[in-house]
Write a structure and sequence with these properties.
Strand order of the largest sheet: 12-13-14-15-17
CATH superfamily of the largest domain: Fe-S hydro-lyase, tartrate dehydratase beta-type, catalytic domain
Distance between the termini: 47 Å
CATH class of the largest domain: Alpha Beta
Mean pLDDT: 96
Structural class: alpha/beta
Length: about 500
């Protein structure tokens, strides 16, 4: 019997799904993260997880994005061979139209991050299309759809290697995870694909991230096969690295490790690893010809009783409007600051434009003297919002611009997520600057500290334009102080030693 899939039902299902996953974490992620929060002993990591959990609940209640990076959409289709599509569009076009409608939804507009040309013009498509579609024809009369929104911070940390057949997967993972830094916003999960060919291994790694997080249940019942034994081994060894939430050091770096395998050539051992971040977003549904899919919201009872708020007793309040180099020099590594006043935003494209203007001797459109720049590309506001979700982007992408910004513009400090590399740290030390870290995965929570927002330069860059934000008590941590001390080095090193002395237990 042939099943007819209506064009509009398919498009509506995709549109509804990208909205749904933008503000609902999967229940399994919330449950495992709540256990990690209860178990965490590092105060900085525990505070970061509290922000992520609080942000998650706020997004579920307010139907606004978990992260400002609403991702590149990945669609995995298993199309039954007894299915007929009532449409003149291709599957790619159907998925793209669903993504377009979902991302341009006026009640919850999602950030457009996709660029038409990766090499030259890099012009934003403004609707987050095209998406990435993978199709498999299978027996049956339904269309099975898994959809995910994958943020750039975690996608950029994807790793691939062609190992020799006798090489150890565990050894490769343990060498590779520390190289990934914290730009993928841990705690999350690792998806691993082994076998097939290069592209098959990468696809398997990505697909493995669609599965439920079940490490807690696996540890309780014990492994039943060699893959499960390997998952547990990697889970325990990766957490023993002490990287922790946001790379600050702590007990939980990963909540789960997933592994997919496929037969491979006798001379080959392709391995791929892709992390999922604190903004884990995916959904699964089936179309059977009866209409568009319906996704059931998770119960708010799933969220733990965690409600992060600024701690005025333990945090230093900073007036950005009167900030001086002497103030910056007084900040201590790991110290929590609450920022109030005006700051500018700027990401890769804006930094490149500034570089081009300086090289030509032309004036900058904004005066950065004694100012702070926030690495962020915000979501557009709705209703009474000053700005939409506006969490930090990965700071290391701006490392190559740091010396220029600190030596030629008068910039005094920077805000982003994750660690800085040695080139940036040396520039920070040389110029007595500082790097402040906001929590990745808490974009809606952070946006509540932004009282006003306006574009002040490079408007054509869309979300990568330079904005001026006025903030009140925006929470950040001193990640690199004016002497060049980095908590992303000291924190994990301390917790790696501590973890070696305590038994790992199920989270």
């Amino acid at each position: 019997m042939t099943t007819i899939i209506n064009e509009q039902d398919f498009i509506q299902s995709i549109a509804d799904a990208v909205q749904f996953i933008s503000y609902y974490h999967p229940a399994d992620y919330i449950q495992h993260l709540a256990r990690a929060y209860e178990r965490e002993e590092n105060p900085a990591a525990k505070d970061a997880i509290a922000q992520i959990l609080t942000n998650s609940r706020m997004c579920a209640e307010g139907h606004r994005p978990i992260c400002q990076d609403t991702g590149v959409v990945n669609v995995f289709l298993k199309v039954g061979m007894n299915v007929r599509f009532e449409t003149t569009l291709s599957l790619q076009e159907l998925c793209d139209e669903g993504v377009r409608q979902g991302y341009l939804n006026p009640d919850n507009p999602l950030r457009a991050s996709i660029l038409t040309d990766p090499l030259f013009s890099r012009k934003n498509t403004r609707d987050n299309t095209p998406c990435i579609v993978s199709v498999e024809l299978v027996p049956g009369d339904t269309v099975d759809i898994q959809i995910a929104a994958k943020g750039g911070g975690s996608e950029n940390k994807a790793k691939f290697a062609m190992l020799n057949p006798g090489d150890s997967l565990v050894d490769w993972v343990m060498r590779t995870v520390p190289e990934m830094g914290a730009g993928w916003c841990p705690p999350g999960m690792l998806g691993i694909g082994v076998g097939g060919t290069a592209e098959k291994a990468m696809l398997m790694a990505k697909e493995s991230l669609m599965g439920d997080i079940d490490m807690y249940e696996l540890l309780q019942r014990g492994p039943q096969n060699k893959i499960e034994e390997l998952r547990i081994e990697l889970y325990e060894k990766v957490n023993s690295l002490g990287i922790g939430a946001q790379g600050l050091g702590g007990l939980t770096t990963v909540l789960d490790v997933k592994i997919n395998t496929f037969p491979t050539h006798a001379a080959s051992k392709p391995v791929a690893m892709i992390p999922n971040c604190a903004a884990t977003r995916h959904a699964h549904f089936v179309l059977d010809g009866s209409g568009p899919a319906h996704l059931s919201p998770p119960s708010l009872d799933l969220w733990p009783d965690v409600h992060w708020a600024p701690d005025y007793n333990k945090s230093r309040q900073v007036d950005l409007n009167s900030l001086s180099k002497e103030d910056v020099a007084s900040w201590q590594p790991g110290e929590t600051l609450l920022l109030s006043g005006k700051m500018f935003t700027g990401r890769d494209a804006a930094h490149k434009r500034i570089q081009e203007l300086l090289s030509k001797g032309e004036p900058l459109p904004v005066d950065l003297t004694n100012r702070v720049i926030y690495y962020v590309g915000p979501v557009d506001p709705v209703r009474d919002e000053a700005v939409g979700p506006a969490g930090p982007t990965t700071a290391t992408r701006m490392d190559g611009f740091t010396e220029m910004m600190l030596s030629q513009t008068g910039l005094i400090s920077m805000i982003g997520k994750a660690e800085r590399g040695p080139v940036a740290i040396e520039a920070i030390r040389k110029h007595g600057s500082a790097y402040l870290m906001a929590v990745g995965g808490s974009a809606y929570l952070v946006s509540k500290a932004i009282q006003a927002s306006k574009v002040v330069a490079f408007e054509d860059l869309g979300m990568e334009a330079i904005y001026e934000f006025e903030v009140k008590d925006m929470p950040v941590t001193v990640a690199v102080d004016s002497t060049g001390t980095s908590v992303h080095t000291t924190g994990p090193a301390t917790w790696r030693k501590r973890i070696a002395e305590i038994p790992l237990v199920a989270i």
